[in-house]
UniProtKB/TrEMBL annotation:
InterPro entries: Tn3-like_transpos (IPR047653), Tn3_Tnp_DDE_dom (IPR002513). Keywords: DNA recombination, DNA-binding, Transposition. GO terms for biological process: DNA transposition. This is Transposase and inactivated derivatives, TnpA family. One of its GO terms (molecular function) is DNA binding. The lineage of its organism: Bacteria, Pseudomonadati, Pseudomonadota, Gammaproteobacteria, Enterobacterales.
Length: 426
């Protein structure tokens, strides 16, 4: 494909793609033949409909309403699980065992164990490092993380903590690539701890956006009256593993559609974790996103606020799914999947191999009011997988609770200083 400005020019081309075609399909767990792929999707969808329908009469948490133009589901809220007395006692005992410690001391101890400050290199110099550089780095990181600036950490009688030293360190050592490398070292170290293994195996992650007002002018901010009033702001899109580690983050101007950046975070994160299931809120749940996730070998498990009113899709017009039959009002066009299968595999391989950014590709797929053949095929794949997700969501209370639990792992107060405002020009 030629022509100016088409992101698809960055996809694997010609002989290069033919050489990668079979390895890519094998690595992603997909057949290389489009007809076989469509048949497998149709069979899986039909089997899941029948399986969930057979248990629906025993599902007290879900009911069907036929009052509107189309049938809709009502899903009962999850009951709160009370902590057993033994767990409450254990929490109290653990808190009593944890000694009060200054945050700066804690950072220095973590550095002594992990060496994460060694990932911070000077922007232009190499080799020799300033004396007590790790002290300066930890102080600078603390100032940035707590949004308090350098002032509370300056100590004129300590060379590593003077105003000049901290400003010099921030200017020359804190860059996107050094922060990413240092964070990866911390995440990888934590994943080896037995306690982290009890929390999870690193295969599950959540992604959620935190909104920040930016009183200063910056190209990365955007307007949104709901979140920023009359001002501007950014969204920090944060990725958290089931081991409670923040393994990636992306700054999003204003409140652009979060779904654009979900895949990018998974594909471009640089830790040793390999999450295969991602959980988000409603903002990241379009058909195209469901399709792309499945094509790339991921399970997309959002918490949908409107799951009861969602469109459910079938592959077989003649099949009957008992009490759920009227819900299956959309029919997937398998022919679109068959005809575009090789293009979808080429796109998935290009994303996996990093020849194009996920956000760039998704923007191009969503840009036109008349979707391309490729975009339509991805939507059909997404409709199959979104329906599979919805059926499992209404059928399995443990699945619904697991999504909520993982999302809650990534939610917390984002700042401690400057009234939760970002006052730095980025």
């Amino acid at each position: 494909m030629t022509g100016g400005g088409d992101p698809r020019q960055k996809l694997l081309q010609g002989a290069e793609w033919q050489a990668q075609r079979i390895p890519v399909c094998r690595a992603l767990g997909h057949p290389s033949d489009g007809t076989k792929a469509a048949e497998q999707l149709a069979t899986r969808l039909d089997d899941t409909w029948k399986s969930v329908a057979s248990r629906f009469a025993c599902n007290a948490a879900v009911s069907i309403s036929n009052e509107g133009k189309h049938p809709s589901l009502t899903i009962s809220s999850l009951d709160k699980l009370d902590e057993p007395p033994a767990l409450i006692q254990l929490n109290r005992r653990v808190r009593e065992l944890i000694p009060p410690v200054d945050l700066t001391e804690l950072l220095l101890e973590i550095d002594a164990r992990t060496g994460f400050t060694r990932e911070f290199s000077h922007v232009s110099e190499s080799g020799a490092r300033a004396q007590d550089l790790q002290v300066s780095l930890c102080a600078t990181l603390l100032a940035e993380a707590c949004n308090i600036g350098h002032e509370p950490l300056i100590k004129h009688n300590i060379p590593a903590l003077t105003r000049h030293r901290l400003s010099w360190v921030k200017q020359n050592y804190l860059r996107a690539e050094t922060l990413v490398s240092a964070n990866a070292r911390l995440v990888d170290f934590q994943s080896t701890l037995p306690l982290a293994g009890y929390w999870g195996g690193g295969e599950v992650a959540s992604a959620d956006g935190m909104r920040f007002v930016t009183p200063v002018k910056t190209v990365n901010s955007g307007p949104n009256r709901k979140y920023f009033g009359s001002g501007r702001g950014i969204t920090w899109y944060n990725f958290v593993s089931d081991q409670y580690s923040g393994f990636h983050g992306i700054v999003v101007p204003g409140t652009l559609r979060d779904s654009i950046f979900v895949l990018e975070g998974l594909l471009e994160q640089q830790t040793g974790l390999n999450p295969v299931e991602i959980m988000t809120d409603t903002a990241g749940s379009s058909d195209i996103i469901f399709g792309l996730f499945w094509l790339l070998g991921y399970q997309f498990s959002p918490r949908l606020a409107d799951a009861g009113g969602a469109i459910f899709w079938r592959a077989d017009k003649m099949a009957h799914y008992g009490a759920l039959n009227e819900l299956a009002r959309g029919c997937v066009e398998l022919s679109k999947i068959e005809s575009q299968w090789d293009e979808m595999m080429r796109m998935a391989g290009s994303l996996k191999l990093g020849t194009i950014h996920a956000s760039e590709l998704i923007r191009s797929l969503l840009r036109s009011s008349r979707p391309s053949g490729l975009a339509q095929a991805i939507m059909e794949v997404g409709r199959v997988n979104k329906t599979l997700y919805l059926l499992n969501y209404i059928d399995d209370e443990d699945y619904r609770r697991r999504i909520l639990t993982q999302l809650n792992r990534g939610r917390r107060t984002p700042c401690s200083g400057s009234s939760h405002l970002l006052r730095t020009t980025w």
